[in-house]
Amino acid sequence: MSNKAMELRAEVDRTLSGRILADHDIRRAIERFDESANKSETRRHLLSTSVRLSEALAPDVHGVLRGCQEKLGVETELELFVYPSSDLNAACVRPEDGRVFVMFSSELLEAFDGAELAFVAGHELGHHLFDHHAIPVGALMRTPGAVSPQQALQLFAWSRFAEVSADRAGLYCCGDLDAVARGLFKLASGLRKGAAHIVMEALLAQVDDLRAIGDADADVAVRSDWFSTHPFSPLRLQAARLFHASELMTDGGAPREALERDVSKLMSIMEPGYLKDPSDAAKYMRRLLLAGSMVVAASTGGISDQEVEAMEGFLGDHKVTSRLDPEALRDDLPRRIDAVVESSPPSRRAQVLRDLCVIALADGHADEAERAILVDIAKGLQLDPDIVDVALHASFDLD
After folding, report:
1. Do 15 and 153 have their domain in common?
2. Are residues 27 and 147 in the same domain?
């Protein structure tokens, strides 16, 4: 692998990855997953459900992949597969027996031109290049008790920066920011056509709107995006544009330090903070988090040590004590919910709801009584109750 290609990796991706893999509990959970995994399961599944794309079947696709391999210095053998789907999707999974499997949906191969496909292929090979599969986010999140709430949030943050790194690899391969804009527009909209400069302007305009939503008291729909391991498409395009204008892609471009600083600031849109914010609105959010987590935890007959640890991880040591009365907090919950609704936009309300869901999973599961309370809180916050199931049951996979 080329030194130049390794330099493309986002600094926060590199830092968080090292921190996660240095965590003894996470490392042990990954080892247990590796020990139980069937080493030939992926290839067997692909051969039985998809079509392997030989060079004779798809010479153009192979040509694009070879170009990406050469630019990134990836020497590992590739096997390409296509599977029938109306979704625009691609994936690269953890290597098996010295092979890397790259999968494309049939719709994506039909809809993407050569430069757009090079961006997608480079993105997927970027995951391999930067060894993102060493942290199996999906397996960790689906295994009860494998990670703590704080570790889960760290995994969410890392995986979004992993996508930024992979996008850089994709742009480095295709060398065409317009193609990246077209590709992200197609992925985000499902539409096949749109002039590059128009779709780029449209997506980048949404970045400003996303920033505004974080501060404005607007009634917008908040869905599973707030729990996503992937950045919003407009943020991905803006991060790609910053990378394209940096010294990593353009002679005389912005210094690496400025690129990483600007990307980190951009990505903070997906983490509307409130735990240390001194404002009244943030105080109301913390009060709701404390009351809501106590009520949820007590709904099953008692508050476990894991749940206390999770709550104190968010709110600080000694914030959760035996002196707090869950019944009194339950009675006060509507007032605390109303205070958050009156002072915070939907995006920030969704952050509290997400954190409540993460705390509910601290002991490895959330039962129906806990879910019912979370749904009631979601309704009180004027959010889509489906967010609760997304947070509690969604699979989190890198692709």
Report:
1. yes
2. yes
357 CB burial (10 A radius; 0-12, 13-18, 19+): buried
What's the CA gap between 190 and 372, in Å, rounded?
A: 34
104, 81 in Cβ contact below 8 A?
Answer: yes
Q: How far is CA 158 from the centre of its chain?
A: 8
Cβ atoms < 10 Å from Cβ of 240: 23
* Mean pLDDT, each 10-residue run in order, the chain (399 residues): 82 95 92 75 87 95 96 94 93 88 96 96 96 89 72 83 96 95 84 65 64 46 50 83 96 96 84 77 90 84 66 62 77 96 85 81 76 94 84 52
* Closest among 199, 183, 337, 351 to 271, alpha carbons compared: 351
Q: In the chain, how many domains are there?
A: 2
Report phi then psi at 55, rounded to 5. -65, -30
* DSSP string across 64-129: HHHHHHHHHT--SEEEEEEE--SS--EEEEEEETTEEEEEEEHHHHHH--HHHHHHHHHHHHHHHH
Q: Are residues 116 and 182 in the same domain?
A: yes
